[in-house]
Amino acid sequence: MCGIVGYVGNQEAAPILLDGLARLEYRGYDSAGVAVFGNSGLKVAKAKGRLRVLSDQIQEGRAIQGQLGIGHTRWATHGAPSDVNSHPQVSQSGKIAVVHNGIIENYAQLKEFLVGHGVPFTSETDTEVVAQMIEYFYDGDILKAVGRVLHRIEGAYALGIVCSDEPDRLIAVRKDSPLILGLGEDFNFLASDVTAIIKHTRDVIYMEDGELAELTQTGVRCYNNLLESVEKEVFHVDWEIDAAEKGGYEHFMFKEIMEQPEALRRTVFPRIKDGEVIFEDFGLDDDYIRQINKIYIVACGSSYHVGMVGKYNLEQLLRLPVEVALASEFRYMEPIVDERTLVVVISQSGETLDTMAALREAKRLGGKILSIVNVVGSSIARESDVVLYTWAGPEIAVATTKAYSTQLAVVDLLGLYFARRRETMTEERYGQVIQELLLLPSKLEQVLESTQDIQYYASQYFNHDSVFFIGRNMDYALGLEGSLKLKEISYIHSEAYASGELKHGTISLIEDGTLVVALATYDKLFDKAMSNVVEVKSRGADVLALTTKNHAEEMGKTANGMITIPTTDELLLPSLGVVPLQLLSYYIALMRGCDIDKPRNLAKSVTVE
Ligand code: AGP
């Protein structure tokens, strides 16, 4: 996913843009560029490769003077990574420069129209079409020219635009790709997200779809797509800047794994008062909660895996049908949703396009939307009827860890809150789960204190080229996340399989030395899990088991290796069990020399279809 930064103020823009782009590197990219307006006009510098290549090219920004500019890190969609396809893209006269995150779906038709009017093109990008279109409609007012173009382009876009004929203002545009404005005393920013600018300002405006903004050194004005002025709420971002720094850790991912106990405390503790789950300003009244007859959980990736655990937990707590759907499937499957369906949308970034599209489809069908989101003010949060934030703090590593854990905890809190109102839990059971939820952070700390054995197993298994994660019930759901963690950061192929299903075909793949991570934390099915361990061992598998301490002795007699977690309420086992799996993947990726925080081909938030 691309990164955008724009600055207008009383300091040299280029170094500020480079610093902002560096803070957006976690989003994934393959080229970078800046356009800065100064005494010698509009200067553009851009290069394929890491940000360091661009920074060296312009001597850390000293080679380009000017106090207004835009910067970009590109994750290629249209046109291979190259210097010419890097952003900013420039119009034929050179006076309009544009940076873009998203996809212009009708760029080919627009390009054909412009070529037919003699406009020369230099790149393969959809973004160049935007720059050329703006110049085509430009008649001395950049804001009006941009407004005309927006009525003609289709797709998802966050745009930063400069015009050398009007060098005192930046134009920002937002539709389906996030864009925020950072407000300062004598400077203003536009950026893809807060991490790029929090060093300079904590006062931000979250642009809505279809809005434009005009930024000068002294102010910011926002407009709707009819160019009518709109008033916008200013949010004050309160998390610490070091939250977006590594803080002495080698990787953001390890830092965020270690932050999980604290993230859980921030997420859970304020929501439990005198033994009761409370949600401040919760937008669902008790009558609505009692008439819900179905819950749909919709998400992507690890957030979907939270939903898979959530299905087990919520069905147990509420005795309600809970369906879980991949967001990318949900929107095309004619889902059965009506006014009595609660649609739980889970997303760390709050910007995943597939998930946003599923939310809109669910809303169209009459469903009530409750989102579980980590980024305050994000698009999914803003379009939901009810939002429960996970308070994990900024998650920089592409591979999610603390957001996954806090999402799980919020789903459990939601289940308890609803169970209370639907009277589907005994007081005793309710109290037990609450008690264990409050103990969860300290039990997580116990797991995080004993990473040596996990490091040892990583050293034994980092050269495997195929791994199975098997488990039953919520252990199967947990295995889905363990498998994804391993795949996305170590590039080892793996798959999660329901243990009971192995014998129906896939067990033919088990041979001497096949690594099987056997998840056996779910007490009620431990004996079944043990029989599956025996089943795969008898075919030569090398079994690394994950189980609770009370089953360690029995499992230790059979498995080749074993990792144990403290016992806890069965609903919370995945919240503990996921941590050794995160660490195992981390150490394996470390031993394979992978780019752990920025895995190849991946982005932190996928804002394209
Ligand atoms: C998880 O490690 C991945 N980075 C990815 O699967 C992610 O969970 C997915 O893209 C959904 O992102 P979201 O939670 O921000 O919507």
Describe the protein's architecture and organization.
The protein is 35% helix and 24% strand. It is an alpha/beta fold. The strands form 5 sheets. Strands 3-2-4-1-10-9-11-15 form an 8-stranded antiparallel sheet, covered by helices on one side. Helix 4 (127-137) packs across helix 5 and helix 9 packs parallel to helix 13. It is globular. It starts with a strand and ends in an 18-residue tail after the last helix. The site of 2-deoxy-2-amino glucitol-6-phosphate has 15 residues, from helix 9.
Write out key terms for the chains shown.
single chain, 609 residues, alpha/beta, eight-stranded antiparallel sheet, seven-stranded antiparallel sheet, 27 strands, binds 2-deoxy-2-amino glucitol-6-phosphate
For the report, how would you describe the main beta sheet?
8 strands, antiparallel
Strand order of the largest sheet: 3-2-4-1-10-9-11-15
User: Can you give the mean pLDDT?
Assistant: 94
How much strand?
15-25%
Number of DSSP E strands: 27
Global Rg? 26 Å
Q: Fraction of residues in helices?
A: 25-40%
Estimate the global geometry from the Cα principal axes. globular
Report the end-to-end length measured between terminal Cα atoms: 11 Å
| Oligomeric state, counting identical vs distinct chains | single chain
Describe the SSE topology:
Elements lengths: L2 E7 L3 H10 L8 E8 L2 E8 L2 H7 L10 E7 L14 E2 L5 E9 L2 H10 L10 H11 L4 H9 L4 E9 L6 E6 L4 E4 L3 E5 L11 E4 L4 E5 L4 E4 L5 E2 L4 E2 L15 H7 L1 H9 L3 E2 L2 E2 L8 H6 L2 E6 L1 H18 L3 E5 H4 L10 E7 L5 H12 L3 E6 L5 H4 L3 E4 L12 H21 L4 H23 L2 H10 L4 E6 L2 H17 L2 E6 L16 E6 L5 H12 L4 E7 L3 H5 L4 E5 L7 H19 L18
Parallel strand pairs: 18-19, 18-20, 20-21, 21-22, 23-24, 23-25, 25-26, 26-27
Antiparallel strand pairs: 1-4, 1-10, 2-3, 2-4, 5-6, 6-7, 7-8, 8-12, 9-10, 9-11, 11-15, 12-13, 13-14, 16-17
Helix pairs in contact: 3-4, 4-5, 7-13, 7-14, 9-13, 9-16, 14-19, 15-19, 16-19
The structure holds 2-deoxy-2-amino glucitol-6-phosphate.
